[in-house]
Structure formats: C-alpha cells, structure tokens
Design a protein that fits this description.
Length: 150
C-alpha cells in the first residue's frame, strides 16, 4: 500500500471574518475549481465557521498522483491572482512524515515553497529543482520579452 499525500487548504480574504459571505464564497469557488481536477479528491473539513450553518473553514485535498498535486499548485496560483486580498495557508503531509505549512498571498504570489513541499511529499526532490529551474527560465523569458516595436 502506498503512502498518501494530503493537502489542507485554508483560504482567507483580508479584512473579512471567515464566516463572512464573501470569504465563504471565495473558498467555495476554490472548492468548485478543485472538484474539476481529474484524480483530485476534495472534502470539506476543518472546524465549522461560527454563526454559519454548514460553514467550512478548510478543504482537504488528496491528489492521486504527483501530476495532480502540480495541478493544485497551478490552481492555487490562479485562484490567488483573481483578488489580491486573498491568501491561503496550505499544509502538505504524507502519511508518516512531517507536515509542511506554507502561507501564500495574492500580494506576493510565490509557490516555490509549496512546490518543494509537494515534491518532498511525493519523495521527488528532482521535480522541485526542475520546477524551480523552469520557473526561473520563464521569468527570464518574460523579462526579456520587452521589445519595442516602432
């Protein structure tokens, strides 16, 4: 039997309580998008939000394969880019190993620590290094693509 990887997502919207309708809608939006990822199990979890019937404070994700976990990284990035006031606390754990918790915000989106945590959880440090090299290359390409057409 293989060890399973779990990803816990806690989403926040700056200046709003977790039980605020906008904050709940933001988490619901992420959950809806996550449910569309093939091979990703999505469960509502955490402590119910005070004052909200059925309110949820976290999502529990179980990617069935490393490629699915990488899709979660992209989903987090896209979700955060929709609104700069959004942030997430993400905890990655593989059965029998230590948890890695990462905070990511819409102000300064950097998924490097999350990518490294997922690679470690799946026991693949080479993927984390490859992903970092690819990201650096993409950033270099983007900064070089400032030609002036006159």
């Amino acid at each position: 039997m293989t060890e399973s990887v779990k990803i816990r997502i806690q989403a926040e919207v700056a200046g709003l309580a977790a039980d605020h309708p906008v904050a709940q809608e933001a988490l619901d939006d992420f959950a809806s998008d996550a449910r569309e990822v093939p091979g990703l199990s999505v469960e509502e979890g955490g402590v119910p939000v005070p004052g909200e019937k059925g309110g949820v404070s976290a999502l529990l994700l179980a990617p069935g394969a490393p490629s699915v976990a990488w899709a979660v990284v992209k989903l987090v990035e896209l979700w955060l880019r929709r609104d700069r006031s959004r942030s997430m606390t993400i905890t990655v754990q593989r059965d029998g190993s230590d948890e890695l918790t990462v905070n990511v915000s819409g102000e300064q989106i950097s998924t490097q620590a999350l990518e490294a945590g997922i690679a470690k959880a799946f026991g693949d440090t080479e993927d984390a290094e490859t992903s970092e090299a690819a990201k650096t290359s993409e950033e270099d390409d983007a900064s070089e693509d400032t030609t002036d057409e006159t």
